[in-house]
Design a protein that fits this description.
The protein has two domains: about 170 residues, no CATH class; about 80 residues. Strands 1, 2, 3, 6, 9, 10, 11 and 12 form an eight-stranded antiparallel β-sheet that branches. It is elongated and about 95 Å long. It contains two helices and 21 strands. With about 260 residues, it is mainly beta.
Length: about 260
């Protein structure tokens, strides 16, 4: 089947202890633009009676090349073993820096409504080239290209490729590999932002089993700031409604933002 998409580049720090591979600190690297995996094969051949009798074409390594949109400097620093700057907005690179090993994965859509996910067990990335170009008559977009060496883990394994019936299944598998927790759904209000002549009654909804916390003064809501949602919210005066959803075993949702102007 043909692939026709690419999403969700994720990574986690590799470790092995007593022959057991583990990953920690899973994160999303950015947004995938392209990826290319070139495998190095053993390419060992045995000849007998003047002919090819046997061959070993097992994968012994390779190179993974990634083009990523939104690769943050601190993400790049982590992946390449650099020290974050004192201001926490960049990094300091030194000749003594050594890039650690990571597990790395992504997924893409396939024809036929299925999804294919990739997980490489042990990769060490190299410093990307930085390219900028002055703006002319047309904008020239430049995004960093990361190249990493695919290695065998302590068990002699280089990676896994799996197919799923749903996109959610592919995401869940990669999240399980990296330790990334699923994120709660951003709350949705029944009334859109806007100007209204009368008081509005706003219903908030999120994912199954998720709790919603909200504020109406424009501050960021949390379990310790704001009100737990139990029934519809009455908006009688001009307000900035903010809401998040939370749940055990998930990260908090993004903040939902609604602005209401009441003229009556």
């Amino acid at each position: 089947m043909a692939t026709k998409g690419l999403k969700y580049p994720v990574y986690a720090l590799y470790a092995d202890d007593g022959g057991v591979v583990s990953y920690s600190g899973g994160k999303v690297a950015g947004k995938s633009i392209s990826v290319s995996a070139k495998y190095q094969r053993a390419n060992v051949k045995l000849y007998a009676d003047d002919g090819l009798a046997d061959a070993d074409q097992t994968v012994i390594g390779g190179t993974l090349t990634l083009n990523i949109f939104g690769l943050q400097l601190l993400t790049r620093a982590e992946m390449l073993g650099h020290t974050a700057s004192a201001e926490g907005v960049g990094f300091v690179g030194a000749t003594t820096d050594e890039a650690p090993y990571f597990g790395f994965g992504f997924y893409g859509a396939m024809s036929g409504g299925r999804w294919r996910a990739f997980w490489y067990h042990k990769i060490q990335f190299a410093e990307p080239d930085d390219e900028l170009e002055t703006k002319g008559e047309r904008t020239a977009f430049k995004t960093p290209t990361l190249s990493g060496e695919i290695a065998l883990d302590i068990n002699g394994e280089w990676g896994e490729i799996r197919e799923f019936d749903s996109e959610a299944g592919a995401v869940a598998w990669l999240n399980a590999n990296t330790g990334i927790m699923a994120q709660c759904k951003t709350p949705v209000a029944s009334v859109s932002s806007g100007t209204y002549a009368t008081e509005q009654t706003v219903t908030l909804t999120a994912g199954a089993g998720e709790e919603i916390y909200y504020t109406t003064n424009g501050t960021t809501p949390s379990k310790t700031n704001g009100t737990k949602y139990v029934s519809a919210v009455s908006i009688a005066a001009t307000s900035a409604l903010r809401a998040i959803s939370t749940a055990a075993g998930k990260t908090d949702s993004a903040v939902a933002n609604y602005e209401y102007i009441i003229t009556g």
